[in-house]
Amino acid sequence: MSANTERYENAVARYFEAWNAGEEGLAKAVAAAWAADGSYTDPLADVSGHEGIAAVITAAHAQFPGFAFRPVGTVDGHHHTARFAWELVSEADGSAPVAGFDVITLDADGRIRTVLGFLDRVPAGA
Q1: SnoaL-like domain spans which residues (predicted)?
Q2: Is the distance from CB of 65 to CB of 87 less than 8 angstroms?
Q3: Which CATH number fits domain 3-121: 3.10.450.50, 2.60.40.10, 1.10.510.10, 3.60.21.10?
Q4: pLDDT by residue (tens digit) across 79-89?
Q5: Where along the chain do its domains lie?
Q6: Which helix (DSSP H) or strand (DSSP E) does residue 61 occupy?
Q7: Nearest by Cα to 95 from 63, 59, 125, 123
Q8: Is the pLDDT of residue 114 over 70?
């Protein structure tokens, strides 16, 4: 594994830690994953800063209680940019009603500067 591959995989691991953090650990997990001026944009949200990102994560868990975000496949990256797929999985029955694909850019410290998220599968009415 190259140093760059490890850098991308570590950043994505911290990203999932933030998305799956409980309420008490959320602020710390977001700060570990994102740069202070980091942003998150998908079809449903466009926020920047740790508080905005944490609010989006909290809202997702409020809409899908008992679900966790899981990576799908491998992380692919080059030049400070990486992409990866994910699913939102029910901890009760393993169903995954939501799936997507994210592209992130990293700062020199390996923290996320930007997330551009795409939703590939969304349940009706969500």
Answers
A1: 12-113
A2: no
A3: 3.10.450.50
A4: 999 999 999 99
A5: 3-121
A6: helix 50-63
A7: 123
A8: yes
The contacts of residue 34 (CB under 8 Å, 6+ apart) are 18, 40, 50, 53, 111, 112, 113
Mean pLDDT of the chain: 94
User: Which CA distances in Å does 86 have to 7, 16, 47, 119, 120?
Assistant: 18, 9, 20, 10, 10
25: Cβ–Cβ under 8 A, 6 or more apart, which residues? none
- Beta-carbon count within 10 A of 7 CB: 16
Whether residue 3 has pLDDT greater than 80? no
Amino acid symbol at 86 = W
The predicted pLDDT at position 123 comes to 82
The predicted structure's pLDDT at residue 126: 56
C-alpha to C-alpha distance for 87 and 75, rounded to whole angstroms: 14
Report whether 78 contacts 24 (CB < 8 A): no
